[in-house]
Design goal:
GO biological process, one term: lysosome localization
Order of helices and strands: HHHHHEEHHHHH
Largest sheet: 2 strands, antiparallel
Pfam family, one: BORCS6
Strand order of the largest sheet: 1-2
Structural class: mainly alpha
Distance between the termini: 181 Å
Protein name: BLOC-1-related complex subunit 6 C-terminal helix domain-containing protein
Strand content: under 5%
Shape: elongated
Organism: Acanthoscelides obtectus
Radius of gyration: 58 Å
């Protein structure tokens, strides 16, 4: 029996490959109602964390879809998947990034507010009356002046301004400050006088240096003029000497001729 079992041939392997299933389609975007419910129940998420989660979800979808050239996926399925991915937004709007999300209601209660680009301008109303309310002297002198100011409710800014009261000033401290101010003024006056004297001395020294330089230049120019004149006179004298030396040359030639004749006579004698 064992030999019969061993001799029986094994079944042949299947010739056709196993069918390949197409990749799963990405999830559909949720409805706005579901997003609102999820945002109400879910805790607050930072913008960077939200964008990172969205990019991770897109990368997971792209990796799960398996867009590789080796897999045999029909082109129609690939086109549908790419169109589905392209229809999804790359970023989600966030109202906290908008400048209009900042509440300007407290400012509008105290004055007019208008915006120019990134700058917000605030113009208060009835500034003089508010300054009178903030002054402690006006409160003591005019206890029942304006009923409208009492009717209006003071803002937290008014309470902060009305809170700290100026105490009694120390006369000794004021006298010390006055003495120090006089001392500082006298020291500044002396410093300015010394500085002016130093500047005057420096200016006088500069003027003396300019005069010395001017005199030196004038004397040097006079000396150069005299040297040039003497050079020209010397050249004239040299020319006169050369003219007079021409006669000496003729006399020297005659003297040589006379000496030759004398030597000739001596040789005959």
């Amino acid at each position: 029996m064992d030999q019969d079992d061993r001799s029986s041939p094994s079944p042949p392997p299947p010739s056709e490959p196993a069918p390949r299933l197409p990749p799963p389609l990405p999830l559909r975007p949720t409805r706005p109602s579901e997003n609102s419910l999820s945002t109400e129940t879910a805790p607050e998420i930072d913008e960077d964390d939200m964008s990172q989660q969205m990019t991770q979800s897109y990368s997971e979808i792209s990796f799960q879809s398996g867009f590789s050239p080796d897999t045999d996926i029909p082109s129609q399925i690939l086109d549908e998947v790419t169109e589905e991915i392209l229809t999804r937004p790359m970023t989600l709007p966030c109202d906290s990034n908008k400048p209009e999300a900042v509440s300007l209601t407290p400012l509008t209660l105290e004055g007019s507010v208008h915006k120019e680009g990134n700058m917000t301008h605030f113009v208060t109303e009835d500034l003089e009356q508010k300054l009178r309310l903030c002054s402690p002297v006006s409160k003591k002198d005019t206890p029942g002046t304006s009923s409208s100011s009492r009717a209006c409710t003071p803002s937290p800014l008014y309470r902060q301004l009305l809170g700290p009261q100026i105490g009694q000033l120390d006369t000794a401290l004021i006298n010390d400050l006055e003495c120090e101010a006089h001392r500082m003024a006298t020291s500044i006056d002396s410093l300015i006088e010394n500085l002016s004297e130093i500047l005057h001395s420096i200016s006088s020294i500069t003027a003396d240096n300019v005069d010395v330089y001017k005199n030196a230049v004038s004397k040097m120019s006079d000396a150069m003029d005299s040297n040039i004149k003497s050079m020209y006179t010397m050249m004239a004298k040299v020319e006169e000497v050369t003219q007079s030396m021409k006669i000496v040359e003729t006399h020297a030639a005659r003297i040589k001729e006379i000496k030759r004749l004398v030597d000739l006579f001596e040789s005959f004698v």
